[in-house]
Structures are given as structure tokens and as C-alpha cells.
Queue: 3 jobs
Job 1
Amino acid sequence: MLAEGARRLATGERPQFRDMLLTPANVGRVADRLSHLRGAAMKLGQMISMDAGDLLPAELTEIMGRLRDSAHHMPPAQLQGVLAREWGSDWRARFSSFELRPIAAASIGQVHRAITRDGRELAIKVQYPGVRESIDADVDNVAALLRMSGALPRSFDVTPLLAEAKIQLAEEADYEREGRQMTLFGRLLADMPEVVVPTLAPDLTTPSVLAMTFLDGRAVETLDLAPQATRDAAVRTLISLVLRELFEFGVMQTDPNFANYRFQPGSGRLVLLDFGAARPVQAGTANGYRRLLQAGMAGDRPAVREAALAAGFMGSRTMVRHSSRIDQMIDVIIGELNRPGLFDFGDRGFVAALRDPGLEIAADSSAWHVPPADILFVQRKISGTALLAARLKARVDVRALVAPWLHEDGAQPGQSEPVST
């Protein structure tokens, strides 16, 4: 950045700070460094690129977007050092085969396929060294990048969000915790044959290594070439899962990354992966969504506005300053929600009608409002599910799926009480 500033000053320019920071060359350098660093910096980049890419400066969007698809795996020597530390120097004696080349590499770990001496075919997720120790610094550095870029106004306090991000990333870096969450979801979803959850191998699981049954499947995005009925069934299953997490289980896997879903063509089942981001859903959050859906399906605009304010989806200042724009957005949502028959996720005509007033509201930084962290995590799962449904151009009767969950007691007849973790 200093070199770029000196170059521009030498030519008689008076460069802006942001222009020196986000040059095309620096964009490439930052993306490359973050993808090598892995860990929390890359994880946050992936989250931001999915959730807020349309609102970030184009240069930052490019950096974060690159991180969605780039991860550098450990060299074999480093991998073997990690496994020797976790399992002992004779770890190879436990396996009849262990593929050193990972079958997947993500932000905080990479996955290997292995077969144990007793014949179990496993997927072994190995955490990159130093991830847990770097979380606080990585989160602070990404926040500094956002602030320096001018994407966040000085008055906007992201401290509570950063604290929550650090907590969740620390939880995701604890593979023993993830193993417990995976086991919990396996039990909760035992009555849902449309999905399958890996089974934990506790004898090989440590805080930095997660061992589970290997479940074959195709990337869920490949369903975009499947027959309409197959795509519809998959999305119907995912929406049903979100509703059960929110209103029945009281715990939700809040990371909607497409890589966390696989599809088995033979059985038609969805494989659910990666439970590090599973977290409890507060009863107040579930009730807030219930009231919002009740008002929306009743076509009651004032009730929608009141429910959104009560739950913390938006602040009173935003409501006062942008009342007409908010009402405009509510009317669009009510119209879509109450359209009879199947909802066509592939028809994105309504998105522009929401985006334009939404961007106008977002441009008023004095009215910015941060919803409670619990809502942000739940909404991330809901939004990610909708993005996947749009990718697959699914058609689903959303009203029919939602309606049974709108009873005040929050449970469908014959179903379990919410659980906590």
C-alpha cells in the first residue's frame, strides 16, 4: 500500500487511502495470503462472501469470493506430523490404507479417506496446525481490513459480532465437540430417512482429528441437471430440516455452505456433513420467526412490521427513517409468501424489488442495525438454503411445509420436545 501511495504521489496524484489499499495487485496478494493462512481468516471470508457480497466494495467481494473455492492442503510431512502428535508415532498400524492426498480441503481442516484394520471405511478430518491459536488475531485482522476499506462506517460497532464470531470459530475448531453434535443430529434425524448423517468413530477422534464413517455422494450442486422432481424433493427435504431445527430440535447446524451437503443418486438421500457450526436456538428466536411467519401468511403488514421490530430483525430508528421502503419490501414478501401453489425458487423476479429499497436503506449508515447474534446465525442458514433452492430452480409448496409449525406450542402433533446442547 505504501509503495502504491509513493508511486501515485510521484505522479502528482493525491490518492485516497482506500484506493491505495485495494489495488488489483493488492487484492490478489490479500486473497493469496488469506487462502494460505487458512483458519479463521478464510472462514470469515467465506461467510462474508456468501452473506454480504452484494453490499461490499467490488474489490473486497473479489477477495472474499476467491476464498470460497481456494484452500491449500498440508504437505504430506506436515500431515504426518499432526497425526503422529494426535495418534502416536505408530498411527499407521491402525489402518490398512490411508490416502495422504485429501479428498476435500476447507478453511480449518482437510479430509482423508481411510480403511481401518478392522474394516471400517472412514472419512478423517484433520485440522490445520495453529488454527485454534490464530482465531482471535485472524478475526481482528479481517475486521481491520473491512474498516480500512471503508465498507464499515466509523459509527458502526461490530464488536459484539466479532466476539460471537470468535466463540463460534473456537467451537468449530473443537472436533470432539463437533463429534458430539454429529451424534446428536444422527439421533434427532433417525426418523427422517431422506437424510443420512455420518457415525462418529470415537476411538480415533481428538480435539484436532474427527473420524467418521465415509458416506459416498455427489456434490449437491450437480443436482441442477437432475429431473425437476428430484430437485424439488431435495429442497423440500432441506426446508423441512430447517423448520425442524428451528421449531422442534432447538439446535441448528448454521453453516449452509453447499459443500456440507452431498446427494446419493442410488438412494436419493442427502448426506449431511460438518456439524462444527451447530448451536442452540433460543426459544425467543424461534418464537420471533413464528410470529413473523404467522403475520406474513395472514397478509398482515402491520403485524409483520411489529414482529420484525420485536424480534430485533430491524431497529426502531430504521423503521422510522425508512417506513415506506420497509412497507414496500414487506408487501413484496407477503405477495410471494401467499402466492397459491408451488413457490418457484428459480423465478428471481422479486429479488430486484427487494434489493433496490434494501440498498437504499443500507446506504443510510446512521440507521444501520445489528440483529441479535442468534438471529444472524439462524438467518444465515435460512438464506443459504434459499440460495441453494434457487441454484437448483426447485418448486416447493413452502406454505404447506410452514403451516404446521405455526401453532403457539411450536410442535407438530406426536413430535418431540425441543432439545438443547
Job 2
Amino acid sequence: MSKLSLLSEFWLFLRERKKWWLGPIVFMLLGLGLLIILTEGSAVAPFIYALF
């Protein structure tokens, strides 16, 4: 299963079930996860973790 297929399936689920409130939650979680992954090896990491 490709990532594009997963995204399209998620989009179809949101459209069909009218669960629009799930979109911002998922994108926020992905953004926070990406931020943590990108900063874990840098000198900025202690400051990022202090925010949470």
C-alpha cells in the first residue's frame, strides 16, 4: 500500500463520513512528530522539549 493511497483513502473517509474535525488533529500530530524527529539530534532539542 503506497502512502498516496493511504492519503487518498483518508480523504475519502473524511468526505464520506463528514468528519472534518479529524483533519486538523491529524495534520497537527504529523507536524509535531516531524518537528521532534528533525530536532532530536540538534542543539535546539532541549528547547523544543521544554515547550511540551
Job 3
Amino acid sequence: MTACIVLLGGSYDPVHNGHVALGEHCAALLRADLLRVIPAGAPWQKGSTHANAAQRADMVRLAFAALPLPVTVDTQEIERGAPTYTIDTLRAVRAEVGPQAALVFVIGADQLQRFDSWREWRQLFDYAHFCVAARPGFALDGPAIPAQVAEQFSRRLGTLQQIRNTPHGLTYLAPDFAVDISATEIRAALQRGETANAPIPAPVLDYIEQHHLYKS
């Protein structure tokens, strides 16, 4: 059977329970062999991060350590030391794992609104499948999705089995899963000293407190 690797990128500033649940959910859907979590280095659409790259990578390792599946933290975007583009990351991962493995890149439905601004966005499908985590009732033909993005994602829709057993080029909507946790709101709560109900894995919260992150 084809090896299947789920790729979960993000700023992780900080990593929270929603990220962990999303990775676990998509890996389970696809019966993935590996979940590969990729902290962004210098995310070109977001500006600077609050925690530094090494701290964000440390927090990701702590957050995903308890999952009952193989997880690796891929720091290539951090090591690149320049603005990070998904196309570069996918090319590097594909070169590493070979042409046969199924690569599945997970994005949130909100990212489709800007997907046509991603560098070489049409070429992304030459390297990976795309799994879209969406709220119930989400549709690709909604007014917020650029028409050419909707057309590509609709035309490429595949089944979980097809995605699991082919290398790249298909899309899938996970219509019952969306992460409604805001990292911005978490940072604001931490700044106010409200840690009791923060939706963050306990080891990550300990790390944040030890390193005095998100205090100002």
C-alpha cells in the first residue's frame, strides 16, 4: 500500500488544542502513516510572530507528543531563513519521500479565500493533495472563494481512498471539522494572565510560563 503522509503547516504562535485535533482527525481519516507538522519560518502573509522560531518548534513538539500515531516536526521552513512559500516546502518534501507517497496538505476553509495569492498555486497540485477542513454547510461555490480556486478544487475532488492511494493532485472537503480557536484571542488571554481555561495542551502552557511568552 502507498505510504500516506499528512502535512500540517502553521505559524503555531502558539500551538493550541485545535491544531492537535485537526492533525489527529485528518491522519485518522486517511489512515496516514505519518503526521508531519511544519512550523512556518517567516510566514509571508502574516508578518512577524510573537514567539521566536525555536520556541514555536519546541511548543509544537510538546503539543503533538501525546498523539497515538507517528509524528515528526519538520523545521525546514524555519531553517530556510527567508519568507516561506508552500510550493518550496512541497517540492522539498516530494524530493525527499519520492514520487509514490501520498502527500496530503491540510488547510482551513478560510485559506481558500486567498489561495490564488499563494506562489505558483496551480503547481501545488503537482506535489500534494489538499484536504480542506470546513464547517458543516461549507460549499466551494460560496461568494468568498475566488472562482478559479473553486473551479480547481471542485474539479479535483476525490474520495479518501483515491487520495490515500495516489501521490498528488486531488482535493477533499472534511465538512465536519473546523478549528474555531483563535491564536490572537489566546495571546490576549495569556497577556491578561488568564491561563486556567486556555485551549492549549498542558505541556505547552508550562513552556509558555517558563519562558515568559506572550506577556507583553
